[in-house]
Design brief:
about 260 residues; EC 3.5.1.122
Length: about 260
């Protein structure tokens, strides 16, 4: 799956990932059963990500939430598909975690990322959005919509907000992003413990792709050794020159969507 083969619309990451899953289902490459959809957000609805195409230099973009696609094959390293990233497409999970996610240890608690992992086939079946959240009060678009009709499926005909899933929060500060949501199953949000790379490596190695329950395992538990201690150690190290995000987020790139 090449970047140029993908359907992409800026600020509609959940729909971009749905289209990636649809493409994989039709082409059978990569196999749909190897794909996991990962939502990244938190209670503050402020999650910094680096190496985003809408960012500037080494400054993070602060999203209300972001969605990426993981490929987890038995015979290959985990791969990340993120059409909003300027990293290679796809790129290794290790590279994405170290360059785009980086460590939560460098962030104030309000910016710590939490993750929800959903099997791609479940996402295809249950996601829907009428895009009403992307309209201004006067009916105009906050950002131009995708050229295709809003996504509806037999199981999800209208936009709905499942209990506990991406609840709306009042944002303050120039980097506050607009809430967005679609309709999906609602497995519990899990914190990255102790950091995103450790969490995702463990999760995707143990994830039963037919279950919405994402285990949070400690590094000392069985199975950790297979994940690669070098990758975990790299995730613990802060990138050179990285500083703790202050509050409010004025020094960083506001992303008005």
């Amino acid at each position: 799956m090449r970047r140029e083969d993908c359907v992409y619309t800026s600020c509609y990451c959940e729909e971009n990932v749905w289209k990636l899953c649809e493409f994989a289902r039709g082409q059978k490459t990569p196999p749909l059963e190897e794909l996991l959809v990962v939502f990244i957000s938190n209670a503050s609805r402020m999650v910094p990500l680096w190496r985003q195409r809408s960012g500037y230099g080494d400054q993070p973009v602060v999203w209300d939430y972001h969605v990426i696609l993981l490929q987890v094959g038995l015979d290959s390293d985990p791969q990340v598909y993120d059409l909003d990233s300027d990293l290679s497409f796809p790129c290794s999970m290790e590279l994405y975690a170290s360059q785009a996610l980086r460590s939560d240890r460098s962030l104030r608690p309000a910016y710590h990322r939490r993750f929800r992992v959903i099997p791609a086939d479940s996402f295809l079946l249950n996601f829907a959005s009428d895009r009403s959240h992307m309209r201004n009060a006067d009916g105009s678009w906050k950002m131009p919509p995708p050229p295709y009709p809003p996504i509806h499926t037999a199981a999800a005909q209208t936009q709905r907000l499942p209990s506990g899933f991406l609840r709306r929060h009042q944002h303050r500060g120039p980097a506050a992003a607009r809430p967005r949501h679609g309709a999906l199953p609602a497995p519990a949000w899990r914190p990255a413990q102790p950091n995103p790379l450790r969490f995702l490596l463990i999760t995707i190695s143990r994830q039963q792709r037919r279950s919405d329950d994402v285990p949070v395992l400690q590094p000392r538990q069985p199975g950790w050794k297979r994940l690669g201690r070098q990758a975990a150690a790299q995730a613990d190290r802060l990138p050179s020159g990285q500083q703790e995000l202050p509050g409010p987020l004025v020094p960083f790139t506001p992303f008005q969507r």
